[in-house]
């Protein structure tokens, strides 16, 4: 089974692409949904968060008070690292279980929708990386319109993230969302067709004979780890770098 990583930047349209792929019967594992699931009341992850930050980060109904926890971790780097050390492993394990579920179902492909796919280095563990892109100016305008924020506030949020242009260096497939919704849907249609055809006849062989699938996946992951460094060296060798 081909595991594809989907990412982008804030207001580039990644979530729109994720929904459109799901509507075309492409299995999607959404990291943001998993991040909410792993901290539901009674979960081991929520218990660890309460042990670390205290019961005051819970609402009266026992659910996580996200604004209150956010106020703690966003102003303290050490506290943020503690929270990430609790939540990130739980989300990654949930991703693995989701991938396993789709593999057991005999799916040809599944998509990991991960906003921090590059930053968290999860891109090293997928077979393809898809980046949803638009120019920085369009991204800024869409963010201002979406959130009703000022240009200065929107720019500050963009500057706090890895630039979308940098993520393109890791992309195997780029969806350019600088145009209309209809233009994006045409690209998603082609992407869905491409993903469904990925692997050809070998897809069923890899599923029926797991060692073949594991060998194929191992080679893909090795190449994934080497590929960005090749691109980096190539850029440095180009004029102006």
From TrEMBL:
GO terms for biological process: coenzyme A biosynthetic process. Belongs to the CoaE family. Keywords: ATP-binding, Nucleotide-binding. GO terms for cellular component: cytoplasm. Coiled coil: none annotated. This is CoaE-domain-containing protein. InterPro entries: Depp_CoAkinase (IPR001977), P-loop_NTPase (IPR027417). The keyword ATP-binding applies. GO terms for molecular function: ATP binding; dephospho-CoA kinase activity. HAMAP family: Dephospho_CoA_kinase (MF_00376). Pfam families: CoaE (PF01121). SUPFAM superfamilies: P-loop containing nucleoside triphosphate hydrolases (SSF52540). CDD domains: DPCK.
